[in-house]
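in:
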């Protein structure tokens, strides 16, 4: 992400309106770009001063911004973990159904094979008797 794009995303970031992908790219850029971090700090200070959140008497905006950035990073980490767990659960469910289905198919094939063998053994003497009678 370039500085122009990052600076356009400062207000949406402060309003909590970035997608996960935008948030991740924004945080990576702001962390590595002192100029954009300073710009973010200015906007954050203005937001805090004009907003109702300053009623707590704490005007250490740098610390508050660092806490917000840290919460954003934690949010993204939780989202990545959640997505990974979701993928693992889906794969496990698919494997379970494949295993259950293959066991069912194997059992059904075994029953079909037993039925075929039973029919073959029952019909063998009849066919041999018919062959003798035909001679």
């Amino acid at each position: 992400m370039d500085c122009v794009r990052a600076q356009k995303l400062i207000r949406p970031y402060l309003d909590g309106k970035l997608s996960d992908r935008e948030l991740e790219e924004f945080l990576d850029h702001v962390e590595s770009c002192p100029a954009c971090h300073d710009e973010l700090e200015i906007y954050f200070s203005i937001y805090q001063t004009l907003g109702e959140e300053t009623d707590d008497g704490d005007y250490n905006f740098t610390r508050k911004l660092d806490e917000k950035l840290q919460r954003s990073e934690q949010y993204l980490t939780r989202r990545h973990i959640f997505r990974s767990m979701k993928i693992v659960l889906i794969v496990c469910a698919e494997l379970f159904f494949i295993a259950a289905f293959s066991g069912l198919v194997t059992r059904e094939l075994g029953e079909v094979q037993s039925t075929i063998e039973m029919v073959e053994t029952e019909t063998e003497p009849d066919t041999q008797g018919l062959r003798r009678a035909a001679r």
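note: Helices lie at 3-8, 10-14, 20-32, 34-50, 61-134.
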